[in-house]
Write a structure and sequence with these properties.
alpha+beta; two-stranded antiparallel ribbon; 7 helices; 60% helix
Length: 130
């Protein structure tokens, strides 16, 4: 019985420590020959968000920023590849936020690779928590 309680105690303390420290693992977003890494956490940074009332980056925000960084890198390194052109145009068309930024803020109606490259900083801006 004492051994079972010790084992239970060790598992409980270990679980609490893992929850509090929530170790980060690197994940990768890839397209063509380009990639970018982001942090992914087991508990989605839950303890930090609880402690700061939601002012810590969670897995979704980290992944979204990594995707934005990857798309910006694709635009910076575009050299006429059809797959990259199609990917960037699809991103702008399929994501409401990018499409609105493109058409409303930049006042550009025709989506083409040249204007995506020109306005890559505005389109693929990183998101931050205040």
């Amino acid at each position: 019985m004492k051994n079972a309680l010790k084992i239970f105690g060790i598992i409980l303390v270990s679980g609490i420590l893992i929850f509090v420290f929530d170790p980060a693992f690197n994940r990768t977003e890839k397209f063509a020959d380009f990639s970018t890494e982001y942090e992914w956490r087991i508990f989605n940074n839950a303890y930090c968000n609880w402690k700061t009332h939601g002012h810590c980056a969670d897995n979704n925000l980290n992944k979204l920023n990594a995707e934005r960084k990857l798309w910006k890198t694709l635009a910076e390194n575009y050299n006429g590849e059809k797959t990259i052109k199609e990917k960037l145009e699809n991103v702008v068309l399929s994501h409401y936020q990018f499409h609105m930024t493109y058409t409303e803020h930049l006042k550009i109606m025709e989506i083409n690779i040249d204007s995506i490259i020109k306005h890559k900083d505005d389109l693929f801006e990183q998101l931050f928590i205040d």
